[in-house]
Structures are given as C-alpha cells and as structure tokens.
Input
Amino acid sequence: MSDTKKFLYVNRKAPYGTIYALESLEVVLIGAAFEQDVQLLFMDDGVFQIAKGQDTKGIENKNFSPTYTALGDYEITKMYVSQESLDERGLTIDDLMPLTYEDEDDDWAEKSSIIVVNNAEIAALMEEQDVVLSF
Amino acid sequence: MKFTIQVNEGPYQHQSSDTAYQFTRAALEAGHEIFRVFFYHDGVNNATRLTTPPQDDRNVVTRWSELAEKHNLDLVVCVAAAQRRGIADADESKRNGKDADNLAPGFRISGLGQLIEGGIQSDRLVVFGD
Output
C-alpha cells in the first residue's frame, strides 16, 4: 500500500454558528504536514466558508476566513465548490474569496485553486478518494 | 479489514457516539481490526469520567472504556478540541494550570496527526456525526 493517499475534506456547514468549519480547517492544516494528496470540497452551507467580506465583529467570534487564502502555501491547490450549492444560495464565484497557488511547474505563475463542480462531478470526485473526511 | 473510527458528537445529545460504539463492537466481533478511535469536535465529551447518567440508562463513557480494555483499543482524544471543552488528563491539567482532570480510563490525549495517520494506515476511515 502506498503511503500517499487521496484525502478529500468535505465542508458542508456555515463558517459560524457551529465550530465544524474552524475545526475542519485545523485538521487540514495539521494534515498538510503529512504530504498526502489533499483536496477540499465546499458544498451546502459550506460554500459560505470561503465567501468574500466576512465580518464577525457582531458575533464576537474570530474571523478565520483569511486562513483559507493561505492554503495554497501548504500545497493545497484544489478547492472544489459545488455549483448547485452556489446556485441555491444566489451566489456566484465572484462572491468567493480569491484562493490561489503558485504553480511550480509553470514558473510559479499564480493560479486559482477554485474549481466549480456539479453534483455528478462531485460524485466522481468522491469515488476516486481514499479518505473522505466530512465536516 | 482495518478501520479508523472518528466520533464527532458528544454523548446523549446525539446518536453518533452510540452508533460509533455499536459499529466498533460489531466490527471487532466480526474479526476486523480497529486501528484507532479518534474523538473530535464535541466528540471529546465522550471521554470525561465525570459523566453520571441515570442508573437505568447506558453509560456511554464507561462503555467505551470497557471496550478499550477488552480489545486493547486506542481511544484518542484531540488535544485542541479537548482544551476548548475542558477535557484534560493530569498532565494537560498541570500544563494549563488547572486544578482538576477528568479523562476517563482507556482514553489518551493526542494531536490531530493521529487522525491523519489513521486515514493513511487504515483501509477505511468511518466518520460518525452530523
């Protein structure tokens, strides 16, 4: 058995209101040290985790959304977003934070990590994983 | 088959700890191996020995402890999630300047790397929670 596995983190909850999103991000950051093939998927209310312009002052919670923009530096370059979940919430890709990485195979060109996928593509994505962690 | 089990919800409030326990017990009875059980989010509350349910109800915490003793299970509680929720063993309590500890027998406190390792080393990682 190879020691490199495909990990998919499925983020389904709004960023605030429950702690799932924050603690999922903590797993992603720790997991990055294990040099696995890591991907994130945002679906259902999870798409709000990467929404632009988050301001948590009113609820006295830490705004941890800037951390997502740093994931490219952890070699996490594939952030899948559900098209259906965006549509259901009246969101488009322009409502999301720019999430980018530097492609070492292309002279460190800055590229978007966001990949919008439909439900059939999400099913195929899950099918090809070794480990699916759902938060 | 080799399993790692992740428990994401606390006892009594939510069914998932019961289901995780029943799955773990059934897997062991069927001859499978449990590499690790990892408690995360409110799942860390399954590890407090101060839990005192009514006498005519199941004791979710001691049930895990007893299963761990019988099968030499590795029950791991996430340290970061545990600190937030006030779950501590004697060492953690002392390190954080607290005056009490509450970790139940058979559990140990460790880091999230233990969950990732479970995913890498096991044939299946099964998540119980919402």
Summary: Chain B has one domain: 2-128. The CA atoms of residues 12 and 58 of chain B lie 9 Å apart. Chain B touches chain A through 19 residues (CB under 8 Å).
